[in-house]
Design goal:
Layout (H helix, E strand, L loop, with lengths): L2 H14 L3 H8 L4 H9 L3 H4 L7 H8 L4 H11 L1 H10 L2 H9 L3 H10 L2 H11 L6 H4 L6 E3 L4 H11 L9 E4 L5 E5 L1 H6 L6 H4 L7 E2 L4 H11 L3 E6 L2 E7 H19 L5 H4 L7 H28 L1 H6 L7 H24 L6 H33 L2 H31 L9 H22 L1 H4 L1
Parallel strand pairs: 1-2, 4-5
Antiparallel strand pairs: 2-3, 5-6
Length: 451
């Protein structure tokens, strides 16, 4: 048993034995995340033991759980204690939980919260879910420009414990207009009677409440911030911390990966077993039905070249190879471009440079693979011309497949669509059509030599 498992075991024993002193000691040594993971591994009888934790401890633990587990645990606590626990949560986490409830249940709970906390929750719920306003917390610490360092440190001791973080100390005026920022280090090393205005930096990077959460996370990553202020106009209304930004990046990456596989709907946003079979299927069926129609088109292309295929039956052996390589090549380019677009790259002149580079890549990988398959086909079937036709077809196909994997997501971004929707199945099927068309067209051109 490692140290973490030992602590969890001792905590459970302390809860069972109602040993408050031991419980306090152990809880100081373990992170709420580890407590949450322990909770998920317990059966229903053992979870009841968590009733003996304080409201603050339960609030910290619940913040680490997903919505279904949060709801389950709060229901076990009963409505009265559930309200108390919600009030101990950070406003942004409480708003995230309440935002998942239906309107009637949400309104009923908010009506029972303290007026100030309810106002914070309503403010957060009024912002779009995927915006900076919907992501921020309203618990933050500020300084005033006319304060002295001594008074600022005193306020910090009194008020900072109620804020979610005090990574940076933001300076505002009496109207809460954001004027500057002070580091903890600068505050500590400055003489006590120094004015905050004399040591603050006026160059503050902030984000507007309406900014998309993915752009917020990118901004924090670019600057290496642990927190960033959220402003409405220039009035500071909240703070977004690094843990929230990491959650956004994980969520967006997961959704992009699901879309990349042609999965939409509920399953694209929830990668756990809370999504049932019917919802899961409904998220996948639309793409597959659409691609089924495109697949029929591929069969129709082959029928148009039936005469060529009948005359040179050996061409049929290489159809899976042509189609597969086209799909693989397009998917590789698609992955590179979608990742770059997600990271905010490929803007302005970089788009043209990207297309040029990928075109060159398509020519090079097509040449290498085309030359290799031409030698294999020529030796295998004793026909130099057959090897030439297959190699040339693969070269052209891989070139166009690379361009398709590059240009399609760029076009979708230009049209304000999510580039991840240009998913693997879509590009694969599209390049199947292109590859087969090129293959049989080239074979038809040279059919007299093949015969």
């Amino acid at each position: 048993m490692d140290e973490q498992d030992f602590l969890l075991h001792e905590i459970l024993e302390a809860i069972k034995n109602e040993d408050a002193h031991a419980l306090r000691t152990y809880l100081e040594e373990i992170h709420p995340y580890d407590m949450a993971q322990a909770l998920l591994q317990m059966d229903e009888d053992e979870r009841i033991l968590f009733r003996k934790l304080t409201d603050e401890e339960l609030a910290d633990l619940i913040e680490e759980l997903d919505y279904e587990e949060q709801q389950s645990l709060l229901q076990k606590m009963g409505p009265t204690r559930g309200i108390r626990i919600i009030e101990k949560m950070a406003p942004d986490d409480a708003a995230d939980y309440l935002g998942e409830l239906d309107k009637e249940e949400r309104a009923e709970i908010i009506a029972k919260l303290s007026p100030d906390f309810a106002a914070d929750i309503n403010q957060l719920l009024n912002y779009p879910e995927n915006s900076a306003g919907g992501l921020m917390t309203t618990e933050f610490f500020v300084l005033y420009a006319h304060n002295t360092v001594e008074k600022a440190i005193e306020r910090l001791r009194q008020l900072a414990p109620d804020a979610e973080s005090a990574y940076y100390l933001y300076v505002v005026d009496e109207h809460h207009q954001l004027n500057g920022v002070v580091s903890i280090r600068e505050l500590i090393v400055s003489p006590p009677q120094t004015k905050i205005i004399d040591i603050m930096s006026e160059r503050v990077v902030s984000v507007p409440v309406e900014m998309d959460q993915e752009e917020v996370a990118r901004t924090m990553s670019n600057y290496g911030f642990l927190a960033v202020p959220v402003v409405k106009g220039n009035r500071m209304v909240g703070v977004i911390t690094v843990d929230d930004a990491m959650d956004v990046m994980e969520e967006e990456a997961s959704e992009d990966m699901m879309k990349f596989g042609g999965i939409t709907g509920a399953e694209a946003g929830m990668q756990d077993l809370s999504v049932g079979a019917i919802k899961s299927a409904m998220g996948r069926i639309p793409w597959l039905v659409g691609l089924l129609g495109v697949g029929i088109m591929a069969g129709n292309i082959i029928s148009h070249f039936e005469e060529t295929l009948s005359a040179v039956v050996v061409l049929a052996m290489f159809i899976p190879m042509i189609a597969g390589m086209a799909g693989n090549t397009g998917t590789q380019s698609l992955a590179v471009v979608v990742r770059g677009l997600t990271m905010g790259q490929f803007k302005g002149r970089d788009v043209w440079r990207l297309i040029q580079r990928e075109a060159a890549v398509g020519l090079l990988i097509g040449m290498v693979n085309g030359l290799l398959i031409s030698i294999i086909a020529a030796v295998w079937h004793g026909s130099f011309m057959l090897g030439f036709v297959i190699g040339l077809s693969l070269w052209i196909t891989m070139f166009f497949a690379t361009l398709a994997g590059t240009i399609v997501p760029l076009i979708m971004t230009k049209l304000k669509f999510d580039p991840a929707v240009a998913s693997g199945p879509f590009i694969t099927t599209l390049n199947d059509l292109v590859g087969l068309t090129i293959y049989f067209t080239v074979a038809t051109w040279f059919m007299k030599y093949l015969l």
